[in-house]
Each structure stands twice: as C-alpha cells, then as structure tokens.
Prior knowledge:
Blueprint (H helix, E strand, L loop, with lengths): L1 E6 L2 E6 H13 L4 E4 L4 H10 L9 E5 L4 E11 L4 H20 L2 E13 L1
Helix pairs in contact: 1-3
Amino acid sequence: MSAILKNNYGKITYEDDYIATIAGISATECYGLVGMSDKHIGETIANFFSGSGGNLKRGVKIKTDGSDNIVVELYINVKYGVSLSAVAENIIDKVKYSIEKDTGLNVASVDIIVQGIEV
C-alpha cells in the first residue's frame, strides 16, 4: 500500500519502497549501527540468490493505511558495547525527522527490532 498526502492542489502518493529507502539511508548514518538485518529467513535467501545485499531498503518495513500516517519497522544489527537505548533513540529521531522533512507525512512510530550484536 502507499501513503497519500493531500493538499489544496491535489494529492501526492508515496510508494512504500520510496519511504523505506529514506528510512534505510537515515538509519545507516547513525552511530552504533553496524548494518540492517533481513526481516526473515525468506528475505535472506532471496537476497542471496538475487545478489541484492546492498539494498537500501533491507531491514525496513513500512506500514501504511492509505492516509498520511505511517509506521516504520527497522531490523538492525548494533555494535557491541554501545548503549542500545541511545542508539535506538538516535535512529528513531533521525528516521522520523528525515521522512517527515522529505515527504510531509506523519510518522506515527518507528519500531526498532535488534536482531544481532556484532563485535
């Protein structure tokens, strides 16, 4: 599904892939994040065979209901020894700000799912 922003002149439709790309780029710029993780084993297998390991949407799930409200889920791997709460808070703030600034949509929540810790 896609998110729709209505204004006086009409409407703007944002596809989930576009929003996921913004979220992925924003998240990878944050300190303490080692990388994005696959959402499930099926995605891991698909990325292996398609060779899309550098995909900017990897580990990002966007939930929209056709309005201007969206929910972002990020599946991440973090660096060992960093404060998980500090890293998560930084990622949430950065992703929320970037999406709202670039699209004008309302980010209802950013959910962080830590799937691994790397040394």
